[in-house]
Write a structure and sequence with these properties.
Blueprint: H1 2-16, H2 20-23, E1 32-41, E2 44-54, E3 78-79, H3 83-99, H4 107-119, H5 121-132, E4 138-144, H6 153-164, E5 171-176, E6 183-188, E7 220-221, H7 222-238, E8 240-243, E9 246-254, H8 258-261, H9 263-273, H10 275-281, H11 297-301, E10 307-317, E11 320-330, H12 332-348, E12 351-352, E13 357-358, H13 364-369, H14 383-395, H15 401-418, H16 421-440, H17 457-461, H18 470-493, H19 509-525, H20 531-545, H21 555-567, H22 569-576
């Protein structure tokens, strides 16, 4: 993963024509810069005056990078707040801090500059104060021999050292960098670019758990470190998303080097940098698969397999970051499969006949069932299961059907017991869409059995291979017949007392088989056992008779197929061509 971040950082710097040094410089977003002018003479360093200029778009020349609010910055350039405090804390303070460092070069000259700035402090502050009276938002910096800070090797070397100081605490000389694979003068082993990499936790330290040898874990040269930082900054600015309360980074990896990708490389970067515009230009926001808003993945699915994607899901705990999941090497061709299956689910299961348009399917459907194990929970304790489904979808890893149904049926039963009819049927529809999607992307497998031909085959086909046994089909049709009965009861009695017979949707094989005669008797009791309903009951009986002697279905499976039948009762009635009145 780090190699991918470094490669992206290198490409970004090349595209922007930025050097490694320029990448580390911040835009101060100030209007003016006041310079303390110093010159080297035969008598040493001399103060020659002050000057100022408007800050140009080329802000790198000021070598500005903020540090601690109470300490110095990474260079002798600072934003003026209170002039005397800024001068002492940010300008003199920078030199004081640098002169304490053991590994700093050119200490003698730095000390000479510091001494001059101290000796002429009163004159310098008076000159600066006079100039800045009419200037708002002004920086203060030092020019030596008319050179901007970025042109002065004395300052730039120290600037880079201070930035890398923390990482250099664990380093080695003349070792191979794990990213560029070249031997470098210095490699570090405690890169601070990512907060999830720490050396105070078990599992991060090799070499007998000796921290001083931890550079062996992942040695990185200083140049590659800068590429990693540039790549990280780019990703956080352009490719950081929220996914149902879970932040994730989308990390691209180019499978062949830039020289061989040609225009593909430029196209990908343009997509990243202009994604909002790209999303709007794509067909519609319904092309999203991660959330109910437009996302970048649909556009990336149309690209060639010259790029792969990594999804890095994280959880922030105080100042640290914890990796929840890394999904590696997702190709555009896999994304195409996901979007094609999503479209099929929308057309077949989520299509709204009354508006002649589909609802949009996305992973939020899974979140309906895999968020909290209990409504009273403060935290989302099912994140692990939810991310397992996401990973399986992107990587075509197999999921267990019964594992999914356990949580789906829990939510469906909850709405059933609340007698919230609208939510009840919508959650059934969501569950059907989820399982159908997973089957289409080859994540769910179903063991089949002998089945008989049926006039309801077109409805069964909606479920793919899910309704692939006689017992499953019988349960499904029984759900439809029961739903028709409930509609009769509602019309006759303005209530649905037969719901009590459904045992809170925890019926087993014996219960479900015993339900059919109860449904038939109720129809007869209401004088509503029409020819079409009789034909449906006979179909169910025939399927029961030809089913396996001992079912291999769990209680969740039995009740899932039953509620699916309830949900699609209108489709079953269409097949029956029922033209008789519901109540005779």
């Amino acid at each position: 993963m780090i190699e991918s971040v470094a490669a992206l950082g290198r490409y970004v710097l090349e595209k922007s024509n930025k050097s490694v040094l320029e990448q580390m410089i911040e835009n101060p977003n100030y209007d003016y810069c006041m310079f303390i002018l110093l010159s080297e003479t035969e008598n040493g360093i001399e103060f020659t005056g002050v000057d100022y200029e408007e800050v140009s778009t080329d802000y790198s020349k000021y070598l500005f990078r903020s540090g601690s609010s109470r300490g110095a910055n990474f260079s002798p350039t600072a934003k003026i707040t209170t002039l005397s405090n800024t001068y002492d804390q940010k300008i003199l303070g920078w030199f004081r801090g640098v002169l304490k460092e053991k590994r700093i070069n050119n200490k003698e000259k730095l000390e000479q500059i510091y001494d001059r700035l101290v000796q002429d402090q009163a004159s310098i502050l008076a000159a600066v104060s006079e100039k800045i009276e009419s200037l708002d938002k002004c920086l203060i910096s030092v020019k030596l021999n008319h050179l901007y800070p970025v042109e002065n090797e004395l300052f730039t070397e120290t600037f880079l050292y201070l930035i890398n100081k923390k990482d250099l605490e664990l380093s080695a000389n003349n070792q191979i960098c794990s990213i560029c694979k070249e031997q470098k003068d210095t490699v570090i082993g405690k890169m601070s670019a990512f907060k999830f990499y720490t050396l105070d936790k078990p599992g991060f330290i090799t070499g007998g758990f000796q921290e001083e040898t931890a550079w062996r874990n992942y040695p990185v040269c200083l140049e590659c470190k800068s590429f990693v930082e540039a790549g990280k900054e780019y990703i956080e600015n352009h490719l950081k998303y929220q996914f149902y309360g879970l932040p994730y980074l989308l990390i691209p990896s180019f499978l062949i080097n830039k020289e061989n990708t040609g225009e593909d490389f430029e196209v990908i970067l343009e997509i990243f940098e202009n994604q909002q515009k790209m999303i709007q230009l794509s067909k519609e926001s319904g092309n999203s698969i991660m959330t109910d808003e437009g996302d970048l993945l649909y556009i990336l699915s149309e690209q060639k397999n010259t790029i792969s994607l990594k999804f890095l899901f994280m959880q922030k705990i105080q100042s640290a970051e914890r990796i929840l999941l890394v999904i590696d090497d997702v190709l555009p061709s896999r994304l195409q499969k996901l979007f094609k299956s999503k479209e099929e689910v929308e057309k077949v299961i989520l299509f709204k006949k009354e508006t002649n348009e589909p609802r949009h399917f996305h992973f939020g459907f899974f979140r309906t069932f895999f968020a909290k194990s209990d409504e009273g929970k403060k935290n989302f304790d099912l994140n692990k299961y939810f991310l397992t489904i996401v990973e399986s979808s992107f990587k075509a890893k197999q999921l267990d059907h019964n594992f999914l149904l356990k949580y789906m049926m829990k939510e469906i039963r909850k709405e059933f017991l609340k007698e919230n009819e609208q939510n009840f049927y919508w959650k059934i529809k969501q569950a059907m869409a989820c399982l159908s999607f997973l089957e289409k992307i080859n994540v769910l497998q179903f063991e089949g059995g002998q089945i008989i031909m049926s006039k309801f085959s077109n409805i069964f086909d909606v479920f793919g291979k899910q309704l692939n046994t006689n017992e499953k089909r019988a349960i499904f049709l029984l759900g439809s017949l029961t739903q028709i009965l409930l509609e009769v009861q509602q019309k006759v009695r303005n209530s649905k007392p037969f719901l009590k017979q459904l045992m809170g949707l925890k019926m087993d094989e014996q219960s479900i088989k015993g339900l059919l005669p109860k449904v038939i008797n109720k129809f007869i009791e209401y004088d509503a056992y029409t020819k079409s309903r009789q034909e449906l009951a006979e179909e169910i009986s025939s399927l029961f008779l030809q089913s396996n002697e001992k079912w291999k279905l769990s209680i969740d499976e039995i009740n899932y197929y039953f509620v699916c039948g309830m949900s699609l009762a209108s489709k079953v009635k269409e097949v029956l061509y029922e033209k008789e009145e519901v109540i005779q």
